Amino acid sequence: MTGTRVLVALALRRSRWFHLAWILGLAVLAPATAAAYETIVGGLAGAGALDVMAANPTMRAMLGPPYDLTTPGGFTVWRVGTFLATLAGLMAVLGVVRVTRADEEEGRTELLRSGVVDRSAPLTAAVVVGLAAVAVLGMLVTAGMVGVGAPPAGSLAFGSGTALTGAVFVGVGAVTAQLTASARAARGLGLAVLAAAYLLRAVADAATDGSTAQLLRWASPVEWMALARPYADERWGVLLLPLLLTAALVAGAFALEARRDHGSGVYAVRPGPARAARGLRSPIALAWRLHRPGVAGWLVGLSVFALGMGSLTGSFGRMIADLPQFEMVLRRMGGGAEQLVDAFYVAMLGLVAILVAVLVVQVWQRLAVEERRGHAELVLSTAVPRTRLALAHLLVAVAVGVAAAALFGALLGLPYALETGSGDVVARTTWASLVLTPGALLVLGLAVALHGWAPRLGWLVWVVVGWSLFMVWVGAVLGLPEWLTRLSPWEPLPALPVEEMAWTPIAMVLLVALGLSGAGLVGYRRRDLGVG
Question: Where are its TM segments located (predicted)?
Fold first, then answer.
């Protein structure tokens, strides 16, 4: 195919740091967990406690189906395998969209097609680079697990399953890039598919053994790696499922790409009204209109996740009765809480606090997209001051973050409140979620400061988010040094209801966030548009 080789090299160069950061961050997750197996499990392996844990629907919904928890490899697949496969899918969707629909939206693809290249060469290059990235990730996972002493066959199944899960979402990203007319919509649709697959997996894994609902796990691509049973009599035939689905999705993407016009999606964007509504006569109204579709998708996803996770709290009492030895491990995941339900709430709220940070940073960084497209320059050509335009996007981001945190906290506690007949738990989880919101605002402040003074370094904010996610999900369980696990914007904040309420750290974090945001607005007012 004419021009494909050159475009592959170009795509590799443009996305090398993106993929390198993702691959290195994910590749260390599995071997680090396997190396800390004895620290995490302790004496539970020989006490029959692991069998009880494997039968608990709550733990299966949270972490996936366990097949052999008596070995470091089998335990690692259960503890972080599904999470790793899901993040591989996230990397794949974002990576493919950024070199297909995003480049087309910003005019790069049209410039490339003005040369001697085949019509499908840009999509081919994106798919090749995406598949290469997930393949490298799979090889590193395999090598890392073998390096810590895990059996080679199981390690190969683990790495191959992770890579093939990512490959499926390379296909998903390629398809969504053809269906929609904007990179934002393509990412949103791709991530919605990923979230639906993860939720389907959680529901199926929580179902009673032998029930019809458990058959749903075969419909979730993020479950297929675990169903291949690495380190537990591997079932290699299961890996044909992601392989075949990837081939079908990629073929479908090429078929759709051949049918649509350049610059548009299969589903055309409807033209707007000739005149703007009264509600669009201010920068903040315009900012909200730009963010509204994406925010709605995020809130729906967080609501479903909150209700799904909150519905699992009813089985905690039975789990403690059957498995008192595992109490300490679960409390470690929940910040040392005495009550398992509280530990679960702390763990979930700590995870979602980081997702809220992802949401607010995405909202803020839409301003950078508007600058690149020239839309911000059009707005600023009117009587709108530059600071006012930036402040509009900032205020929308803050409001969305607070609303998302409150909504998730309330819905997380709602199932338990309905079960017990007490509404106090809803108030407690809502307040606990809001108390963690200043951490997300601190990350937002960092994003604003970077955009104001050094927009080319805006990627650093995602390093902070990724590090915090790793510490919340894995760091505490691995028994890492305390000074290392405390390097997070959320660490100074009280983890309710485990810790007592403290206003001083909240005020300090908010002051730092406000200072960073103010400095960023000053920098944005002083620098030229599009200049770092």
Answer: 77-100, 121-150, 156-177, 189-208, 236-256, 295-321, 343-364, 394-418, 430-450, 457-481, 501-524
Q: Within a domain: residue 327?
A: yes
Backbone angles phi, psi at 500, to 5 degrees: -80, 155
56-101 pLDDT tens trace = 676 777 778 888 888 899 989 988 899 899 999 999 999 999 999 9
Q: Are 388 and 475 a contacting pair, CB within 8 Å? A: no
Among residues 474, 197, 432, 208, the alpha carbon closest in space to that of 315 is found at: 208
Residues whose CB falls within 8 Å of the CB of residue 481, separated by 6 or more in sequence, listed in order: none
Last residue of a domain, one of 219, 235, 269: 269
Q: Are residues 215 and 233 in the same domain?
A: yes
Choose among 261, 101, 104: nearest CA to 183. Answer: 101
Distance CA 96, CA 88 (A): 12
pLDDT (tens digit, 9 = 90+) per residue, 112-141? 888 888 888 999 999 999 999 999 999 999
Residues contacting 36, CB < 8 A, separation 6+ = 477, 478, 479
What is the domain range of residue 154? 1-269
- HEC secondary structure over 206-253: HCCCCCHHHHHHHHCHHHHHHHCCCCCCCCHHHHHHHHHHHHHHHHHH
Q: Which residues contact 446 (CB under 8 A, 6 or more apart)?
A: 460, 461, 464, 516
Cα–Cα distance for residue pair 182/294, rounded to 1 Å: 12
| Cβ 54 vs Cβ 164: under 8 Å | no
* Cβ atoms of 495 and 350 closer than 8 Å: yes
Q: How many domains does the chain have?
A: 2
Please report which residue ranges of 374-436 form alpha helices under DSSP H: 375-380, 386-420, 424-435
- DSSP letter for each residue of 139-166: HHHHHHHHHTT--HHHHHHHHHHHHHHH
Reference 61, options 384, 328, 312, 388; nearest CA is 312
**Pairwise CA distance, residues 184 & 120, whole Å:** 22
Q: Is residue 163 part of a domain?
A: yes
d(CA 222, CA 84): 9
74 and 13 in a common domain: yes
